[in-house]
Design a protein that fits this description.
alpha/beta, 2 domains, 8-stranded mixed β-sheet, 12 helices, 368 residues, Spore Coat Polysaccharide Biosynthesis Protein SpsA, Chain A
């Protein structure tokens, strides 16, 4: 019985900390210990904007036209599409744009995955700053200027922007959970560095770019690597990108499973907690390690609640709360449905990873 109680209170405390306690603590500390970014809107270095693409014929022309229209000096921007062995008309369409626009270039890469294509593009460009985006994203006209302005701070090596989720008519589709994540990312940035970015909009100083294991991806591995190297990884919410959300919760679940497989690879093999300052180490454990473990924590909490249901009212309340969450999921309550899907995706991803590892290659997301 004592072991069950230890598991119950340990898992309950871990879940409460990662979802509520840590965000509140980060928000409060950011108000009194903020590290500001020394932005310089006048700094305009040469930039290579890199779009890794695999079979993106449906969106690649639109993506290039969007990037060509950015509010940044045209003679200081190079646009590179690193095509990861696309088998559709992606390469043909990019070459068509490049024929009339010398700033656009195609790199036809052997199939090796997104990160391998990005690495090659970085090696074959010369900008002082390298910026990255997905083929299905759209940037606001001032997005690149906003990213570069933050990189003018000599302490900043990496900056990510804000991804806004909108439907085809431009209506905001950001859910409560996504807005919560963006808020927490902003608090972490104000404290020093974010613990994760997003692939739709981010940039680095070329001198700080590192080639990581192709299975890892940049969203999680680059921020903590920058901090391990004594640099900052920050969030600039004014630099905005737009994407259409996945069409269903089921599609979002599949996307999350694929994403969390890479997260487990980094967590278990990426030395992500090594050599970190104490405050950032707390952030990494609280926001990343415990969050990726949340599915397992819920399973243990549910099992221990069942075992202890006759031992007192706290266990009855905990069991009732978990059953209510599952009932809300079954009743298709949006926030409950999203939370259960995302949480269970961490368990499914771990199972997949332990059975077969994680591949470096990827397929386009089902958002269009």
């Amino acid at each position: 019985m004592s072991a069950a109680k230890t598991l119950f209170w340990g898992t309950l405390g871990a879940l409460a900390w990662t979802h509520v306690g840590y965000p509140l603590a980060a928000g409060a500390l950011a108000r009194v210990r903020e590290r500001r970014v020394a932005k310089d809107p006048e700094w305009q270095p040469r930039v290579a904007v890199i779009v890794a693409a695999h079979d993106e014929e449906a969106v690649i022309e639109r993506r290039l036209e969007n990037l060509l229209a950015l509010d940044y000096p045209a003679d200081r921007v190079e646009l590179v599409v690193a095509s990861d062995a696309s088998s559709d008309r992606t390469n043909e369409l990019v070459e068509g744009v490049a024929a009339r626009e010398p700033r656009v270039r195609l790199l036809d890469c052997a199939r090796g995955g997104k990160v391998a294509a990005q690495d090659r593009a970085v090696r074959e460009t010369a900008g002082e700053v390298v910026a990255f985006s997905d083929a299905n994203a759209t940037w606001a006209p001032d997005a690149l200027r906003r990213l570069v302005s933050a990189l003018a701070d000599p302490e900043v090596a990496y900056v990510c922007g804000r991804l806004r989720l909108e439907d085809a008519e431009g209506t905001n589709r950001e859910g409560l959970y996504w807005r919560y994540e963006l808020w927490l990312r902003e608090q972490e940035s104000r404290l020093g560095s974010v613990t994760g970015g997003n692939g739709a909009i981010y940039a680095l100083r070329r001198s700080d770019y590192v080639e990581v294991d192709p299975r890892w991806g940049h969203d999680l591995s680059l921020p903590y690597t920058m901090v391990q190297n004594g640099r900052r990884a920050v969030y600039e919410p004014a630099a905005q990108a737009f994407e259409q959300p996945t069409p269903t919760n089921e599609a979002e679940y599949a996307r999350k499973v694929r994403m969390f497989e890479h997260c487990w690879e980094i967590t278990l093999r990426g030395s992500m907690l090594r050599g970190l300052p104490a405050r950032y180490l707390v952030s990494m454990v609280s926001h990343r390690v415990l969050r990726y473990s949340s599915g397992l924590l819920h399973v243990v909490l549910l099992g221990s609640s069942v075992l202890l249901v006759g031992a007192g009212w706290p266990y009855v309340v905990a069991l009732a709360g978990q059953l209510a969450l599952l009932a809300a999921f079954a009743a298709r309550v949006p926030i409950a449905r999203y939370y259960v899907y995302v949480t269970w995706a961490t368990v499914q991803a771990l199972w997949n990873y332990l059975r077969r590892g994680v591949p470096a290659a990827w397929d386009p997301a089902a958002t269009r």
